[in-house]
Specification:
This protein is α+β, with helices and mostly antiparallel strands and about 700 residues long. It has 3 domains: about 270 residues, Distorted Sandwich (Beta-galactosidase, Chain A, domain 5); about 170 residues, Glycosidases (TIM Barrel), CATH 3.20.20; about 80 residues, Immunoglobulin-like, CATH 2.60.40. It is about 15% helix and about 35% strand. It has 12 helices and 43 strands. A hairpin with a 3-residue loop joins strand 2 and strand 3. The radius of gyration is 27 Å and the shape is globular.
Length: about 700
Amino acid sequence: MADDGKLIRIENEYITCLLNDSGVILELANRKTGTALVSQGENLTGWKIVSTLGSWREHPLFEAGNHAKIEAGPSKAVLTFGGLHGVGIQKAGVMLDFNIKLTFELHGPELVCQAEAENNSNETLREIWFPFLSGARELDRHEGHHLVINNSTGMILDDPLANLPQYDGKTFGNRPGGKFFTCGFGKHPLLYPGVCSMPWMDYYNGRQGWYLGYHDQEMPSTALLMRSRSVEGDMQLGFARYPFVKPGQKWSSGKYVIRCHEGGWRAGARRYAEFAKTKIKSEADTPDWLKKAPGFHLISCIGQDRRINNDYDHIYETFKADREEGLDLPILVFGWVRRGFDNGYPELDPDERLGGAAKLREVIGKVQAEGGKVLLYSQGRLIDLCTDFYKAIGKDCCCVSEDGTPYIDEYSFNTESTLYPNRLFALSCPSTAQWGDQLKKQIDIIMGLGADGILFDQIGADIPYICFGENHGHAAPDMAFHGKIEMLRGLHSYAAGKDGGFAIIGELICDAFLQDLDITHGYATQDGETNPKVDGIHVLSDIYRYTFPRHRPSCRMCVTKDDYSKAFVNGLVIEHYRRGGDQEVYDYVVGLQKLRASLMGFYNCSDFVDEEGISYQPGGFTAKHYICDDGRHGVAVASLSGKGGIVRIDAPFMETADLHMVGGAVAEIKKEGGVFQIELAAHSAVILIGR
């Protein structure tokens, strides 16, 4: 209830939420544990709006100085602002006729927030930060604190108070501005759908936590904002949207859910998974041959520097060598085009130096005649500025900035020179019919070469840029990701109509697109591949796998046996190269692939449930639990860090189990006192399957 028109308290048996009449959450507490997620200090900070003001594109409007009309009950508060005061240019105050309604409502252990805006001004409401929680502090003293950051398959940031980017409070007197967590991609915050694979975070320790998720069926572009404040010794956690509400328009957000829970991050993952089932199918209609594949063998013909690394015959030679080792892996071919890797996109011409289209078609047919499969790389996002395609069509279907110029990206893997960058690309707008038609042509080209599937690079999740193209088929401006969903769906239908067994793979992991891709070509799925190298951060692919237990992203760039062991145990599709590296590591990967291949029937019908229901000891091992549709359970186990020995697996749901292993990995298995004891050699992996 309101207190003198200044404070509003809503609460139920789970949560107490204290607001002021400016819409700032002053306190957000878990009544069961008595611990607050939010406890604001002297520098109160709440929501923020960014608007135009004449030619100024970053006019900030804060909650301070704005007071709402309040409608409040025991568990719901609605705050309505009839116009907003802003700082104006050089702090000369202005009033803009933005009518804003903020709703805060308790549903059990959840605070659900929504925002609405009506623009009766002559300016544009560009950006809104809501909910934006300041005052996040330690949940319990003497316990480690962690923050789930959903980049790729998921990461955990330990001690986020110390390791998040710090804001010093100097801009506009402790006002937002300054750096948020970026995952190493320049100045962009964590954006969904994009480098952020799922729009939720979770701040937790071993005893309790808070889930913060954005729930919207339309999956609009959203930034997850995370930083610490040195001036207050706390964190700011929240969300930003980019509605670009023009004069005369109305806008409303989806639901922001803030939930208190017991235990660690899995509680947050379960809450998001519950919502995700309403908007996302768990898997695409993947061709049967791809479901049987335990992984991929990757090769490259022509590098970015246009040097020939391998000829087309190498495709068959790799396939034949795999067969001799007892492997049946699809061959995924990069750099097969005339200009080499990362050149000439989206023009796809086989290289005449290697025999041209006729030779490539011949080699692919030779692999297929012996029961093999070949997929060819293509680009799903970049447009080379030097191509005829860009000059004729690409300039009209690329993402356009607010100034009418194309956004530019670059990829330069310098080997001999110091000149950088030397590869420049425009970024396609996926809402344009021209780009969708171009990708269909790329499917036609690759089908015409006889291949069994296509990899569209960068199509799954990369930095989303707001496109201001007026004739692109999307609301201008927009990050155009709804258009990408429709485009992917159209590509899948187009390919299936021509060849039901043709596979479409997309690079980079994002849940918004998983239902329209047969497998996701992953990135940053293990430690050592994180970008950036942030203090306290480590990859935990369990997060995405647990949230979407049937979706199998691939891992790549594994280097060590431990990398491959973790990928195997976590059920990731293993990609590997035939490099001139460590033969012992290569032989181990071959063993893992053969083991996985023998169990694909189990994997394809099983949910990954992480470590729920099992426990194991000692350290130096990793184990994950799977539950199959037929009632069987599986526990995948690997020894790590070069240590072997006896690992004890407590899996009370299994009376007996068959042991499947990489050859020679196991000396003994027995069950005593309800606990399986397995003696594992150093760097080895097994899976127990039983009831």
